[in-house]
Amino acid sequence: MSFFFINKWIILAVCILLVFTANFLSVFIALILILIICILFFLLRKKNFKNFSQEYVTDNIFFLPISGKIKKINVIGPDLISILISIPFYKPWGVYAPSNCRVSNLGFSENLATDKNHQVNKYSGLNYEFIDLENEKISIEMRFLNRKKYNELVLNVDLGDQCSLGSNLGIVPWGGKLLLNISGDVKLNVKEGMKVHALETFLCKAN
Q1: Angle at 190 between CA 158 and CA 99, to 5 degrees
Q2: What are phi and psi of 161, to 5 degrees?
Q3: Of the four, 17, 26, 137, 173, which is 20 to 30 A from 94 by CA?
Q4: Could you confirm whether domain 52-206 is CATH 2.70.70?
């Protein structure tokens, strides 16, 4: 009797499951496809870059620290250039040292408009995280705009760290926008609208 009772409920459960599956089969298939796409996207995003820059290890040449597209270049003064770069969510999220350099500053700020020497009032009120790098030739300030809790910068470096060309500084989850400020006498090698790749595209050369 007990055996029949257990089997009766098992049969009932299987029948309910079959009915439920038949009604929502398309939903299950869609969820499985989305899961597969997400896994493939993650694997593609994690794909390692080809580090051609290792052939040019020098303190005079600087590469792009991230992959994306250059939206705006603003020459503020003879020794100060500001570059706005868009980082799509489907591009690699890694941030890399553009040359042999030292981490001179890093942190978080809530008002970009208060930044010294930067004419970027249109970004006033945006939260941003920053990494400042410097060597004997130039200094590069990286401002990652509009960072929230869900996409905050993940850093692999600390203040004062010495970084060699290609060192992984961290990641920018889900992409975003980077305001790159270059201070020093340099010859720029990029232009607006250009698609750039981390450690493959020349950024500038110090004179």
Answers
A1: 30
A2: -65, 140
A3: 137
A4: yes
Q: pLDDT tens across 85-109, in order?
A: 999 887 778 899 999 999 999 888 7
Question: What is the rounded CA–CA span in Å between residue 140 and residue 182?
Answer: 5
Threshold 0.85, pTM exceeds: no
Nearest to 127 by CA among 141, 146, 114: 146
Per-residue CA distances from 153 to 5, 49, 108, 134, 186 (Å): 58, 20, 10, 20, 28
How far apart CA 31 and CA 156 sit, in angstroms, is: 34
Q: State whether the Cα torsion 109-111-175-106 is positive or negative.
A: negative
Which strands make up the sheet holding 68-77, listed edge to edge? 162-163, 101-109, 128-134, 139-145, 176-183, 80-87, 68-77, 195-196
Q: Where are the alpha helices (DSSP H) in 24-163?
A: 25-45
Q: Which residue in 161, 192, 27 sits closest to 97, CA to CA?
A: 161
Distance CA 82, CA 75 (A): 6
133 sits in the region (left: phi over 0; alpha: psi -120 to 50; else beta) called beta
* Antiparallel, parallel or unpaired: β 154-155 and 68-77: unpaired
CA distance 47 to 58: 26
